[in-house]
Amino acid sequence: MESTTLPPQGAPASGRRWRRVRPLLIIPFAGVLLSGCTLPNFGVTKGVTKSSVNVYHLWQWFSVGAVVIGSLVVLLLAYAFLRYRRTDDKAIPKQSQYHIPLEILYTVVPIIIVVVLFIGTLIVENPEVSNPRTDVVVNVNAFQWGWKFAYPGHSVVVVGQTTQNPTMVVPVDTNVHINLTSTDVVHGFYVKEFNFSRYALPGVKNQFTFNAVKTGVFSGQCTQLCGLYHSIMYFRVKVVDRATYDQWLVANRNVSAAAAAASATALQNNTYVPSKPTNSKAN
Amino acid sequence: MSRTIPTTTTEHDGHAEHHGPSGLLKWLTTTDHKIIGLSYTITAVVMLVIGGALAELIRAQLATSNGHLVSFAQYNELFTMHGSVMIYLFAGPFAFGALANIIVPIQIGAPDMAFPRLNALSYWLYLTGSITMLLGFFTTGGAANFGWVGYAPLTSSLNAPGAGADLWIGGLMLTGFSAIFTGVNLVATIFYLRAPGMTMFRMPIFTWNLLVTAILILLAFPVLTAGLIMLYADRHFGTHIFSVAGGGVPVLWQHIFWFWGHPEVYILALPFFGMATEIIAVFSKKPVFGYKGMIFATISIAALSLGVWAHHMFTTGVVLLPFFSIMSLLIAVPTGIKIFNWIGTMWRGEIWFSTAMLMSIGFLVTFLIGGLTGIYLASPPLDFFTHDTYFVVAHFHSVVMALLLAGMGGLYYWGPKITGYLLNERIGKSQFWFLFIGTQVFTFPQYILGLQGMPRRMAVYPHHHGWVTLNEISSLGALLIGVSTLLFVVNVVVSWKKYPAGDNPWDAQTLEWFTTSPPPHHNFYRLPQIRSERPTWDHNHPEHKAIAHENHEG
Amino acid sequence: MRIEAKLLLFLGLFFGAMCAVYWTWSLENAGGVMMFAGMLLCFLPGSYYYYWSRRMKTRPEDDPNATTEVGAGVVGSFPGTSIFPFLLGMGSFFVVLALVFGIWLLIPGLALVLWALLGGTSEGRRGGQV
Q1: What is d(CA B523, CA B328) in angstroms, rounded to the nearest whole number?
Q2: Residues C74-127: pLDDT tens digits?
Q3: Partners of residue A11 in chain C, C-beta under 8 Å
Q4: What are the residues facing A140 on neighbouring strands?
Q5: Residues of B whose CB is below 8 A from A204
Q6: Residue C102 contacts B, CB cutoff 8 Å
């Protein structure tokens, strides 16, 4: 996806050589893998980011494998049920127990399938978890039970919780770098249209990058159980063109900071009442 | 006292059972593996009914998008305790406590488990552990409410105050030790108490699977118990192992939990694989196809199982993705071998569609679905997308419902050996259809819901995309499964001491069908010569020995 | 005995190899330590069994041609009934409840555990109650 990559947060140094070798292994497969457009969607959509489209194609190929193997097993079973139904309860069939070539066959073929699936996985995974350099950075902080989106260098902060869901505004066709943290327990940052999720872990700065290719408003929510109001911990991602994004940044400079500060103080003092909205400015 | 294995019929040999205590005292003081196994079976079925009732409440709440049956807080308790009861208190103990306890010693020609009193202790720890965990419902703060995985720091004393969480920890410690003792017992029994001629490669697949399960228990459960002690220390002794504030690492809990938790998946699954293997062979009137391949597949699953735990943690962003991805994908290979061996066992057989066989076939099909969807989840990009959605819920329910099907098959198959009486086949078959169809109706909408982005553990959900309809269908499936469980209870009542089974009602193959039903106090009046993994079959059908190598026919 | 030993040694070797790959690749300590411990847990009994399997005669259960008559005789000591597992279980129950509801529950808990341990040990020496 991108040529310049930063090592992902927490990645061990020893993984670097491997990361250099991997692209050589996967180039011949990449073309085939990413051309699965004429296949059925198997219940999944392409999503709205560069990575989500790759995930969608990977899903198609996994599904092809699953459908082929599943059908093979079901057909064999159906044939056995019809053909070898007991007719005479005294009859004893031939007591054959081993067929070595056949057993080797259904050991080797699955290994080959698994290796192919693994290579496909690497092709999609490597760009998805890479963090290309970009100028759009959002610090996302999850807390019980809401989200805070801070735009470092722009003095823009958006906070919202269960009764007033916050909106993260990002530009289209741009790499957006997310620094994901959690104030209290484990949360999950999940946007269905991104075909992606990532935990917000206390004590860890999780990083990922996405590149939205469509404008629009997309719903996201917490997927990892985080306590009482986990079910209603939503947020929105609003993808706009670059000019609108820049205008929005300027318009919201310092506006929401006061509200955010008040909200953060309230949270730290544990006086936070979920039924009352603490944030006034969404977008 | 000392025991012998007599080689000729001695009808008065079971003298110990005539002189032992009777009534309640018999159940309290017994060290007989069959009585202990029965206690396990009854307790586990009670746990199944409790866990099932919790599931029905969950599905009733989710039948509408904005359900008001329970509050958010109660909903968190419901799914936490549903998962905990089903995994910790039903599935595991039912497999290695109930059926293994009864069947494994008889299958290898042993008079009892190697440590009968330790075996009894295992049961009492299991029972008291179960009671401890369920006591949470009767405390003021309610039961544990942080999910059955208890991710730190949601389990800290700040986030989960109250006795419910401590009772959950205490109950898990007790059942954990129960499992460890059973593991020790099974390994010692299988290594030291086999009958003459019962070499390792003549043990039935069920016993082999239980041996591997027991080794996995010994590797995995101490890790969980250690984690629980750390958790308790964090909550009450002021340590900061899992809390950021004191310099701890919350993710460590996930590592510890899943280092137990993924082997635990195979600890649950392997015994049921073993049951299905035995049943499919018996009701196809054939030996297990690829017997040795089956054993090597089981050992490979065990070997790989210690290196896959972090596929539950792909979305944490702090684990090594390619390593866990390839290890998890590789698990599909031995599992696939097993599936093809099951088909090979049926191939050219004489398939008798008894209830036990239907249940095993239901297991095979349902497990196939759960297994294939599991392959998606071994791929990190696909896991990022489906993690913590209903796709995962549907995946592991396909797997565990498959195990329930196999377990029910095990009860229909081995129940007559334990009690001496058959269950009603007609009710059994309707139970099968309710359970099998119910399972598919239950899981299929959940797969779709997951792909459409519905996260798990939600008490309420948005009213769009036809999610309500899908959830209603899923709830209907849960209802059908509930009916099937009731049918089982009805069947036990209806068939009570009605259909005498005889020693070997199924023309089965392994050693437990050589003795009487129920077996005498120390299991055997006499033993046959053991020359293959099917001594009873060899004894009954000396002219139909297994053909060792068949190279030119499929 | 040899197959039992080899099974455990194989698992130990596999875990060892997996641990080496994982630890050097990921540098993540929790999993590395647990895998290493898993390897040790297999090697400990595995090497014991292997040591003895080379020094003992083939047992009847390892001899493919053994007749059932070989197995006649004393197998071991099996107590017919015993109340002490129940008492030990109840004692452990109280000890765990003490962790939740109050330290005073340790008194009946530990009393039961102690009783069961003493009783069970002396019962074992007498060879059971039957």
Answers
A1: 41
A2: 777 777 788 999 999 999 999 999 999 989 999 999 999 999 999 888 887 665
A3: none
A4: A149, A180
A5: 251, 316-318
A6: no
Sort strands A156-161 and C74-77 into parallel, antiparallel or unpaired.
unpaired
- Rounded CA-CA distance A204/A187 in Å is 12
Tokens read off for B206: 């069920």
**CB-based contact B174:C93 (threshold 8 Å):** yes
**Does B528 contact C7 at a Cβ distance shorter than 8 Å?**
no
| C-alpha span between B108 and B512 (Å, rounded) | 8
Of the candidates C3, C85, C92, the beta carbon closest to that of B117 is on C85
pLDDT class of A49 with cuts at 50, 70, 90: very high
Q: Taking the domains of chain C in order of start, what are their residue ranges?
A: 2-61, 84-126
Confidence of residue B6 (pLDDT cuts 50, 70, 90): very low
Per-residue pLDDT at A4: 38
Which residues in chain C are closer than 8 Å to A13, comparing Cβ atoms? 27
Query: B525 CB contacts (<8 Å, ≥6 apart)?
Result: B6, B9, B10, B11, B13, B515, B516
Query: A269: helix, coil or strand?
Result: coil
Q: Which of B125, B318, B529 sits opposite C92 (nearest CB)?
A: B125
The full set of domain ranges for chain B reads 28-540
Is there a contact between A81 and B380 if contact means CB atoms under 8 Å apart?
no
- In this predicted structure, what is the pLDDT of residue A252? 86
* Distance (Å) from the alpha carbon of A232 to chain B's nearest alpha carbon: 8
Tokens standing for residue B414:
């081995």
Domains of chain A from N-terminus onward: 15-129 (1.10.287), 136-268 (2.60.40.420)
- Whether residues B309 and C31 touch (CB distance < 8 A) is answered with yes
pLDDT at position A199? 95
Question: How many other CB atoms are found less than 10 A from the CB of residue B125?
Answer: 26
A101-104 long-range contacts, CB within 8 A, separation 24+: A101/B551, A102/B344, A102/B554, A103/B290, A103/B293, A103/B337, A103/B341
Q: How far apart are CA B9 and CA B471, in angstroms?
A: 60
Indicate yes or no: CB of B548 within 8 angstroms of CB of A98: yes
Query: How distant is the Cα of C113 from the closest Cα of chain B, in angstroms?
Result: 12
**Predicted local distance difference test score (pLDDT) of residue B152:** 87
Q: List chains touching C (3+ CB pairs under 8 A).
A: A, B
Q: Which B-chain residues 151-170 have CB contacts (< 8 A) with chain A?
A: 151, 153-154, 159
Between chains, do B132 and C85 touch, taking CB under 8 Å as contact?
A: no
- Per the CB < 8 A criterion, the answer to whether C82 and B29 are in contact is yes
Give chain C positions within 8 Å (CB) of A12. 25-28
Q: Which pLDDT does position B24 carry in this prediction?
A: 85
Q: For residue B245, count other CB atoms closer than 10 A to its CB.
A: 11
Among A242, A197, A234, A223, which residue's Cα sits nearest to residue A47?
A197
Which residue of chain C is at minimal alpha-carbon distance from A18?
C25
The helix/strand count (H/E) of chain B reads as 18, 3
Interface contact B307-C22, CB threshold 8 A: yes
Find out whether B358 and B429 touch, Cβ atoms under 8 Å: yes
Alpha carbon distances (Å) from B70 to B54, B62, B436, B448:
12, 10, 29, 25
The ipTM, to two decimals, is 0.94
**What span, in angstroms and rounded, lies between the C-alpha atoms of B209 and B266?**
10
* Nearest CA distance, A160 vs chain B (angstrom): 18
CA distance A259 to A276: 13
Q: Taken in order B468, B431, B371, B298, is the CA torsion positive or negative?
A: positive
Instruction: Report the phi/psi class of residue B37: left, alpha or beta, with left for phi > 0 and alpha for psi in -120 to 50.
Output: alpha
How far B468 CA lies from chain C's nearest CA (Å)? 41
> What CATH homologous superfamily does B28-540 map to?
Cytochrome c oxidase-like, subunit I domain (1.20.210.10)
* Contact across the interface for B199 and C28, Cβ inside 8 Å: no
